[in-house]
Write a structure and sequence with these properties.
Bound molecules: zinc ion
Helix content: 10-25%
Distance between the termini: 31 Å
Number of strands: 16
Shape: globular
């Protein structure tokens, strides 16, 4: 079943033409618990993996937290996302590549006290790839181990919230407030940045924006994708809850906890306090420098 974000309740571009030049396309992935195969795009599912390439492992020194590894041996990374170009052609695949894989070490790391992700771009037509079942390290907290999910990519439009240029945000502040008073719709929570796990668009930032600088060319890196703990929160659900998941009576918050969680947090991830991890790449540099940041 496809997942459809309802049209925005107001015409953002008619109300605030200043944001039009800042619009960006995003692809909400709408993960839902399922049984993806290694030949499908998935979250937390099995991967196509080259036979000759050893499975990646993490040998970092992990800080001692509630989410630190049980032993000192190196940790196998776990699959987080596998995206084929056929499903998400919007991804900036390097020439000749048609498969993106994101894995992470599912324990806290010094940087951000979150899992440490790695990205792999591949050509899926290479014949030496095989289906690999995801490792499930024992002794780890389930908050960083995604439940296997199938994806339902959907194209939406993002307008920046915290990434609005300061002058534009200042100029619009009063009109945003007036709109909210008159209609109950908040530009920041309901009308700007799409929520949930997504490719492209703007990061959903729960704190001040932090755009990494490319170590090679010293320019601001590009947002690749966002892994959020949650598809929507107590505010954003009003515009980002898919039509197909909207209860016939009452609201999403009237559903029993288990049932709501299957819609709000299908992968079962909890990054900090309902935060997210944002992945960045530099598209200008051929070796595609990669960075990540969490504001959870
Ligand atoms: Zn690690
Ligand atoms: Zn660069």
């Amino acid at each position: 079943m496809a997942r459809t974000t309802p049209p925005r309740p107001l015409d953002v571009e008619a109300l605030f033409p200043e944001v039009i030049v800042h619009r960006r396309d995003a692809v909400r992935l709408h993960p839902r618990v399922g049984n993806p195969s290694a030949r499908e795009s998935s979250l937390g599912g099995p991967l196509l993996w080259p036979r000759a390439q050893p499975w990646p492992r993490c040998d970092d020194d992990h800080p001692r937290t509630a989410l630190s590894p049980p032993g000192v041996e190196s940790i196998p990374l776990v699959p987080v996302l596998q995206l084929f170009a056929a499903d998400v052609p919007e991804l900036p695949f390097p020439t000749g590549m048609d498969l993106l894989q994101v894995l992470w070490c599912p324990f806290d790391h010094e940087y951000g006290y979150v899992p440490r992700p790695e990205v792999f771009w591949r050509d899926s037509s290479l014949i030496d790839v095989e289906a690999v079942a995801p490792p499930r390290p024992t002794g780890t907290h389930n908050d960083y181990l995604p439940n296997p999910c199938v994806l339902h990519p959907e194209r939406v439009t993002d307008y920046p919230n915290w990434d609005l240029p300061e002058g534009v945000a200042d100029a619009l502040e009063d009109r945003f407030e007036q709109l909210e008073e008159e209609t109950g719709w908040s530009y920041w929570s309901h009308l700007s940045v799409s929520d949930g796990i997504k490719v492209g668009g703007y990061p959903t930032w729960t704190q001040d924006p932090f755009w990494p600088t490319c170590p090679t060319c010293n320019q601001r890196m590009d947002h690749l994708l966002t892994i959020n703990s949650s598809e929507f929160d107590g505010e954003s659900w009003r515009t980002w809850l898919p039509i197909e998941d909207t209860p016939a009576t009452g609201t999403i918050w009237d559903l029993p906890y288990e049932e709501r969680t299957r819609i709000q947090r299908p992968p079962g991830l909890m990054l900090g306090d309902m935060g997210g991890i944002y992945l960045f790449e530099c598209l200008r540099c051929p070796d595609r420098p990669f960075a990540y940041h969490s504001d959870s």
